[in-house]
């Protein structure tokens, strides 16, 4: 019960008996780094809830290029609850191994039918994910310079995955140039070229696959300022 009620917003305020019953039906699953949890087109009869680890939700274009839509971590749900599951339109890669809990969609919706708070929280989950998607679309727009898109992404990651560092705030994820390109939705070569001025100016530091942001306010000013 503690995992559902304390780590997942969707269960906040729900009937304790409902949460307790659902907790008894959870299936614990360990995840391994650089493996696929599910792929586009899978029909998922369970929802995946994250206790630990980091997960990249991504799409693959017709040319084979990957585009990471979200990175999700502890306390988040990887796939939407669906009353009648359809083939999922996104894939999930484990970028840091951990633990997820699975709960059958049918069991969840039986609980939703009896608990209006849980039903409203589920709607809130959909709305939150849609708002995040809208922001992603804005940041992927060709109207925003690529160096600013990179700066904005690194600033956001330093907010979501902060780790103390002597030189500022480190991003607690292993981010290669290839993975950064997938996050941005641009070619590796373009990202490498546009990352260079951020490194040279000291707005961002790169050390062995780790990005460090010395001053988050300066980085924020950089991508928000008018050209």
UniProtKB/TrEMBL annotation:
GO terms for molecular function: DNA binding; DNA-binding transcription factor activity. InterPro entries: cNMP-bd_dom, cNMP-bd_dom_sf, Env_Response_Regulators, HTH_CRP, RmlC-like_jellyroll, WH-like_DNA-bd_sf, WH_DNA-bd_sf. Pfam families: cNMP_binding, HTH_Crp_2. Keywords: DNA-binding, Receptor, Transcription, Transcription regulation. Residues 10-78 form the Cyclic nucleotide-binding domain. SUPFAM superfamilies: cAMP-binding domain-like, Winged helix' DNA-binding domain. It comes from the Bacteria. GO terms for cellular component: cytosol. The keyword DNA-binding applies. Residues 144-217 form the HTH crp-type domain. This is Cyclic AMP receptor protein. It comes from Aedoeadaptatus nemausensis.
